[in-house]
Amino acid sequence: MSTDSTRPALQLSFSDKLRLWWDALARPTQWAVGVPFIILIALLPIIKPPLLTTVGTDFGSVLAQFGMFALLAIGLNVVVGQAGLLDLGYVGFYAIGAYTVALVTSPVSPWNLTDDWLAQDWAWLFAVPVAIAFTAVSGLILGTPTLRLRGDYLAIVTLGFGEIVRLLADNLTNITRGGQGLTQVAYPVVGVSEERPNGIFSAGNTIAPLNSGTWWFWLSIVLIIVVLLIVGNLERSRVGRAWVAIREDEDAAEIMGVPTFKFKLWAFIIGASIGGLSGALYAGQVQFVVPGSFNVINSMLFLCAVVLGGQGNKLGVILGAFIIVYLPNFFLGRTELLGIPINGDDIADYKYLFFGIALVVLMIFRPQGLIPARQKLLAYGRPIYVATRKAALALSRKPAVETKGGAR
Amino acid sequence: MPLLELKDLTVSYDRIEAVRGISLTVEDGELVTLIGANGAGKTTTMRAISGIRPVARGSVWFDGQDITRMKAHERVTAGIVQAPEGRGVFPGMTVVENLEMGSYSRTFKTKAEHDSTVERVFDLFPRLLERRSQVGGTLSGGEQQMLAIGRALMARPRLLLLDEPSMGLAPLVIQQIFRIITEINKEGTTILLVEQNAQQALSRSDRAYILETGEVTTSGKGKDLLADPAVKQAYLGVA
């Protein structure tokens, strides 16, 4: 009875095919493919592939920066990609995370704890959960009044929040020392040896290839995997389904019985704490925190990574973060590319222009991002399939039922 | 005791009162229709009942309980489920995922209960079964409307609110949708229906209220209103 059961076959894009292939693999096979891939990525700063390796800056440090950006992108993706809340002040959470670590561990900070009872060696590790907790609370404080707003209004308010955090850091001079910044921020002191008197994570460890950048990159990979597991589980739960519903149609979600405000707030808090974690990493790696590092343009870069990679797709936003961090560094200091002489420093200087053009082009040809999301919401995936099959069989046996719905 | 009762309900957008002190009741098991022209306040009334729109004055009572201040998502758990105007289908979710969202607030005791609910919806709307893995945004208008109603049924409503189910649909599809609405009602679900398609709505409902510029002007049995000369002239296009 169905008039158009002969619809054209579904056109599958490359990413859909890749996803289908990946989903079809058994769990052990997925591990067998995934783990070597991650190890390969992790070994990049040691292998130093010829064309891929940056020339102007240390490759390990670039990858460490990518690791932090990837964390930020995953966190922002929860807010923007999953729950669909446009947050333009995400750098504020990054700053709060970094400043929390700095305030607790820097000897020049008035709230330094490392003098009294906190050993310098362990200070960073202690400060990280504090930073996460602090940013989570700041997410709650920002979210409670503002998440009643929607769309553009929310974007403007969060934009303001990002600026407020930076201006506070700049102007509360007796706490943050303003533009002078907080120095000698703690970092994890491990792997102390003759050549590396301050441990492997110290900025003073410049012995390539196992310099501090490489170690921070490896630490960030571990954290990214942990965060991905947590966020992935959330996405597959009722919480994730609620986020998708809110993103697609907030009113409809509410009348389906989704407590929208509560879940929007949760998205904000979770996103904020991931941003705080990344900020804590940053403070530890650079060991120096100034307000200038948290300009609002960074918020735009984070958002650019999410949109470029594919909102709502965790792997996509990691790819986006890689592009945003890696490309300018790729050109930095390069005088020729594949035999063609170029001025790499100039190209790197114009990165905002190129990202802007890239975004415009992407929005025209591939608005969902490089790796688009296709959410799997089905908590009851298989039962539904069985039920629909059963119903389909019943229908084919009872033609009478079919004609009932056959008004056309 | 009526299942739903609006007492002197006023809903306003800033200073404009879209609904001005209306009172109506819906008894358990009834199919009640609210008809009126554009801007009469039908959708606003619906939104106030489902809790999306705050109430300025008056109260909403459900099953003997004052729910005027109850949050929208809590009303779903209480048993008031709406299929919104303009259908409100989640555009990026498949038909099946949309239906799953419908049962978000409901916990199924057994898998069999869940399966039979889904099967029931597919039974009412075989078209949805054909389209089960298609995303909501690519469905036709009629299919989206079926999905919106089916999704609302997934929550097992005690009171089903249908906001203009016939909007923008072809006459044949409208007939089909109305047939199914009647069927759902006959099976024991109370329905409050908002419509502009007065002919279809009145002939199928137990009672009806006519809304004009935010006030109830006439009410009575659906069949009686259908015969009422004033109603005929205003809503049925018959002189």
From TrEMBL, chain A:
Compartment(s) where it occurs, according to its Swiss-Prot or TrEMBL record: Cell membrane
Keyword Transmembrane helix set for record: yes
What does the record say about its membrane topology? Multi-pass membrane protein
Keyword Cell cycle set for record? no
Organism equals Cellulomonas edaphi
> What is the protein name given in its UniProt record?
Branched-chain amino acid ABC transporter permease
UniProt KW keywords:
Cell membrane, Membrane, Transmembrane, Transmembrane helix
Q: PANTHER family under this entry?
A: HIGH-AFFINITY BRANCHED-CHAIN AMINO ACID TRANSPORT PROTEIN BRAE (PTHR30482:SF10), HIGH-AFFINITY BRANCHED-CHAIN AMINO ACID TRANSPORT SYSTEM PERMEASE (PTHR30482)
Q: Which residues cross the membrane?
A: 29-47, 59-79, 91-110, 122-141, 215-234, 265-282, 288-308, 315-332, 352-373
**InterPro entries linked to this entry:** ABC_transp_permease, LivM-like
TrEMBL record, chain B:
Report the InterPro entries cross-referenced here: AAA+_ATPase (IPR003593), ABC_branched_ATPase_LivF/BraG (IPR030660), ABC_transporter-like_ATP-bd (IPR003439), ABC_transporter-like_CS (IPR017871), BCAA_Transport_ATP-bd_LivF (IPR052156), P-loop_NTPase (IPR027417)
**PROSITE patterns, per the entry:** ABC_TRANSPORTER_1 (PS00211), ABC_TRANSPORTER_2 (PS50893)
One GO molecular function term of this record is: ATP binding
Pfam families attached to this UniProt entry: ABC_tran
Q: Does the keyword section mention ATP-binding? A: yes
| Domain spans labelled ABC transporter | 4-238
Q: Does the keyword Transport apply?
A: yes
Please give the Gene3D superfamilies that the UniProt record associates with this protein: P-loop containing nucleotide triphosphate hydrolases (3.40.50.300)
Q: Which family does it belong to?
A: Belongs to the ABC transporter superfamily.
Task: Kindly provide the name given to this protein in its UniProt entry.
Answer: ABC transporter ATP-binding protein
